[in-house]
Fold this sequence. Notes:
The protein has helices at 3-11, 40-48, 84-96, 115-124, 137-144, 192-201, 231-238; strands at 24-29, 51-54, 69-72, 75-76, 79-80, 101-105, 128-132, 157-162, 181-186, 209-214, 222-227, 244-248. By secondary structure, it is α/β, with parallel strands linked by helices. It folds into 2 domains: 15-135, Tetrapyrrole methylase, N-terminal domain (Cobalt-precorrin-4 Transmethylase, domain 1), CATH 3.40.1010.10; 138-253, Methyltransferase, Cobalt-precorrin-4 Transmethylase, Domain 2 (2-Layer Sandwich), CATH 3.30.950.10. It has a 5-stranded parallel sheet with strand order 3-2-6-1-7, sandwiched between helices.
Amino acid sequence: MTMNDLRHRASLLIAPDGSAVPGVVYLVGAGPGAPDLITLRGWRLLQSCDVVVYDSLADARLHAELTCERINVGKRSGSHTLSQEEINALLVRLSKAGKRVVRLKGGDPFVLGRGSEEAAWLAEHGVSCLAIPGVSSSVAGPLLAGIPVTHRGLADAFCVVSAHPRGEDRSFTFPAYQPQLTVVVLMGVHALPRWQASLSALGYPANLPVAFVTWAGRPQQRTLRTTLANCAQAAEEFGLTAPTVAVVGRVAALNAVPAYNP
């Protein structure tokens, strides 16, 4: 298949006015928190779909007043509305019934959101799928707290790492310490003491700044600034809860712009 073929195929998956097409599943990134941070393309599809299958981190104001069918498939730590296998089967069933389906996911659907797994499953079952980028909390969470993930003279690169709880015999995928690197940790509240110890063992300095941004882009957004050595204790005293983005690196001490107050 040539590039022109791919472009033509993609053009058939969305109407000329930007609205949804029957039988297609749209993996839409809802963005980080506030509903006005979704992309225009995602918003147009959301307004024209027959059914929205939404995650817990997608702001409810995006879909609460829609007249279409709304299905909650949110998964939070220790509480799953549907299993991933059930979500996959639901998307196939809805699309094959000729529905215009928006699968609404927090942040960006392909950044630690299992969107690519859902896309692969849909392809295997003959379902047309289009992914719509969203603003990832990995960069927007820090920004909304006034923290840049890169800054000339302090950080010229950043990486995003999942700290979702794993088996005790599994290690985290952290890089070796580099002074010019910012590490953004997602889904890390539950396993904070473990990844704190992992970074320390890799040579990350005890006094390295760490910031936690919780509920980024929401009215309840709060920021905690501390150091690597003190971050677990500080988070406990702060009452840190998910969803939280952690920033590890020299930029975590910056306050480049006022924090966003939605």
